[in-house]
Automatic annotation (TrEMBL):
Location of 4-aspartylphosphate modifications: 53
UniProt protein name: Response regulator transcription factor
Record domain Response regulatory: where: 4-120
Matches recorded under CDD domains: trans_reg_C (cd00383)
KW ATP-binding (keyword) present: no
Native species: Streptomyces nigra
One Pfam family cited in the UniProt record for this chain: Response_reg
Keyword Secreted attributed: no
Length: 233
């Protein structure tokens, strides 16, 4: 069961926790933090599921869900609402707008992943739309099921930490990741790492995927912020 999940959550820490949990389950994820970005990502990426925070800025989760259900692109995309509001009226409104499930904060990440599996199965997305779990960007393909990486079609050997970093960056090309965010991607594979160890992982990855590691064209430094994978899908 591999799916691409759009996470629309304005709390960056909560969003990162959900993203890491999804990656650990073998899914891919795109994270956005406001309503317009959620609608744009849903239109462009056609995800298999939207995890939708109710209290999004600009356009709230109710508004996003309402637009998604009226969309001609994919009006049946599953939506799991995630919010701190638990009033019965809010729950009923979310379900009436077409949400497939509704969870209130605080929540257990394990329960959230179980709910996601259920919604995907119920919607037929788990074994239907995303038969190919491979994520691709900038000439890089990462297969989270077979644990394989290819660069321009050539197999690339990666350490577990390098693999997790590359998987995260390939799933979200052009997103700038901080060292701390990339370090979190390696949790469970490289527990002794520090943020500075991320620089070493990036340097090693450049040796493996760049034509000239000293002048990288794919794995770029964003000075004062972190790194991004550039080059398109």
């Amino acid at each position: 069961m591999c799916a691409h999940v759009l996470v629309a959550e304005d709390d960056t820490m909560q969003a990162e926790l959900i993203r890491r949990s999804l990656l650990a389950e073998g899914h891919t994820a795109t994270v956005v933090h406001d309503g317009p970005a959620a609608l744009d990502a849903a239109r462009r990426l056609r995800p298999d599921l939207v995890v939708l925070d109710l209290m999004l800025p600009v356009i709230d989760g109710f508004g996003v869900c309402r637009v998604l259900r009226r969309s001609d692109d994919d009006p049946d995309i599953p939506v799991l609402m995630l919010t701190a509001r638990s009033a019965e009226d809010d729950v009923l409104l979310g379900l009436e707008l077409g949400a497939d499930d509704y969870m209130t904060k605080p929540y257990s990440p394990r329960e959230l992943m179980a709910r996601i599996r259920t919604v995907l199965r119920r919607g037929g997305r788990a074994d239907g739309r995303r038969e190919d779990p491979v994520v691709r960007a900038a000439g890089i393909s990462v297969d989270p099921v077979r644990h394989e990486v290819r660069c321009d079609g050539t197999p690339v050997e990666c350490t577990p930490a390098e693999f997790q970093i590359l998987l995260a960056m390939t799933a979200e090309p052009e997103r700038v990741f901080s060292r701390r965010q990339l370090l979190e991607c390696t949790r469970g594979t490289d527990r002794a790492s520090t943020e500075r160890a991320v620089d070493v992982h990036i340097m090693n990855l450049r040796r493996k995927i760049e034509a000239d590691p000293r002048r990288p064209a794919r794995l770029l430094t964003v000075f004062g912020v972190g790194y991004k994978l550039s080059g398109g899908r």
